[in-house]
Amino acid sequence: MAETLDTGGDQETAATRFLERFAMIMSDSGYPRMAARVFAAILTSEEGRRTAAELAGQLRVGPPAISGAVKYLMRVGMITRERDPGQRRDHYRVDQSAWYKAALSSDEVYRRFEEGAHDGLAVFSPDTPAGARLEEIERFFAFLRSEVPRLMHKWQELNTVPKDG
C-alpha cells in the first residue's frame, strides 16, 4: 500500500487514486500501462524507492508484470536499480533527471518528423494544401529542436538555485 498519513483511509484512497490517474497520463502519452503504474508507485512512495515485492503487493499484480515494467523503465532511463550493502533485494528508484533526459531525447523524434516533412516537400509543392501542411510541420519541429536545448539550459539554471528554507 502507498505510504501515507493515517487519516482513516481517506489519504490512502486519495493516494491510490492519484497513482492511477498519473499512470493513466503516462499511459495516454505512450508508456506501457504497467510501467506507468510502477513508475507512479515508486514516485509516490515515502522513501522514493520500492522493491519488486513491494510493488507487486501495492499494485496487486504478479512478479512477471513487475519484472517487465522495471526492465522497460530502466531501459528508457526513468528508474535506477540499487542494492543496500549486505542485502539481497534490489530497490528501484525514480531517476531525478528522468524528465530532463526524456525531453532531451525527444530531439531525435523531432528531427525525424522535420526530415520526413522536408522529404514530403520534394513530392508536394508548398503551394498545394498538402505541401503547406508539410511545410508547417517541418518549421514546427525545427522550432522545437532549436528551443528545447535552450529550455533545458534554463531549467538547469532554475533547478540549481538554492531553495529558501
TrEMBL record:
GO molecular function: DNA binding; DNA-binding transcription factor activity
Keywords, sorted A to Z: DNA-binding, Transcription, Transcription regulation
Domain of life: Bacteria
CDD domains given in the database record: HTH_ARSR
Pfam families assigned: MarR_2
InterPro entries according to UniProt: ArsR-like_HTH, HTH-GbsR_regulator, HTH_MarR-typ, WH-like_DNA-bd_sf, WH_DNA-bd_sf
Full protein name: MarR family protein
The organism of origin for this protein: Streptosporangium canum
